[in-house]
Amino acid sequence: MTKRVLIVDDCVNAADQLRAIVDGLPGFEVVGHAQNGAEGLKLFARLRPDVVCMDIVMPMMDGLQTARAILQHQPRVSVYMISSIADVPAKLSQAIELGARDVISKPFNREEIHAMLLA
What we know:
Layout: E1 3-8, H1 12-23, E2 28-34, H2 37-47, E3 51-55, H3 63-73, E4 78-83, H4 89-98, E5 102-105, H5 110-118
Parallel strand pairs: 1-2, 1-3, 3-4, 4-5
Helix pairs in contact: 2-3, 3-4
């Protein structure tokens, strides 16, 4: 069974890089990309992905707010937060407390992402 992945990141280049990594992993397919949390919630409701890879810092609605909304309604969804070095460690801890499975660090490492998604 193929796992459907939604990417939510305001940086198109980062989203494209992550898409290439995820699409290269057998059993996973990227089904959509949103550029902010509000758009991510709409796509989540429409596409019903199994996995969400979401940036923490985004305009309009950040990743923490979006993860909270998704996990309150669909706690079985695997949410992975995307973090850059500039993200505050407290936000990373908060993401895990909300129910995020793990944190994907920028710049992306193909092997680490594959291992994380397959765990």
